[in-house]
Design brief:
The chain is mostly helical. The chain has seven helices and five strands, in the order ββααααβααβαβ. Helix 1 (18-32) packs antiparallel against helix 2 and helix 4 (72-91) packs antiparallel against helix 7 (122-137).
Length: 153
Amino acid sequence: MATTFIDYKDDKGFYIAETFMQLVTHYIYEEAKKEQYIFSNKEDILEDMEWDINGIHAGYLVLMWHEYFNGAPDEQVMLQVLGNVKKTLQNKGPQISVAELMSIKTEDHVLKYILDKKPFPTAELIRVIDALIQMLEGTWESTNYDMDLNWRY
C-alpha cells in the first residue's frame, strides 16, 4: 500500500497508508456533509474528500485543510465533525464489518479489494481521528510519526 504524509500546520503530521486514510476520510465525509456543519468552503472541502475516497488522489492523498479552512471558525467546525466521527466509530463496537466496508461508495476498486478481506478494528480508525483532532488543536508535535494501523489484508 502506498504511504502518504498527513499534516496540517508546520509540517507536523504522520505517515499512513493511503488506503487507511481513504477509509478515515469516508467517515469524516459522511459526517461533514450534514447540513449542521457550516464551513466557509464546504463544497470544496467535500469535493476534495470525495476525490480522496474515489482514489483520484492516489499517490498524492493529502489533507487540503490549509487551503480550504478560513481560520479558527472552520477549524472549530472540523473539530465538531471529528468529535462526532469518533463517537460514531465508538458506537460501532470493536469492528467495522466487511459488509459495511463494502457499502462504502467509491470508484476505487483497489480500496474495495483491500477492504473485502476481514473486519476493520474501530480503535485503529479512532487513533487517526485523535491525531487529526490534536493537529487541529495544535497539540500534535511529531513531524514523522508512523501511523502503522494494526490491520493487514
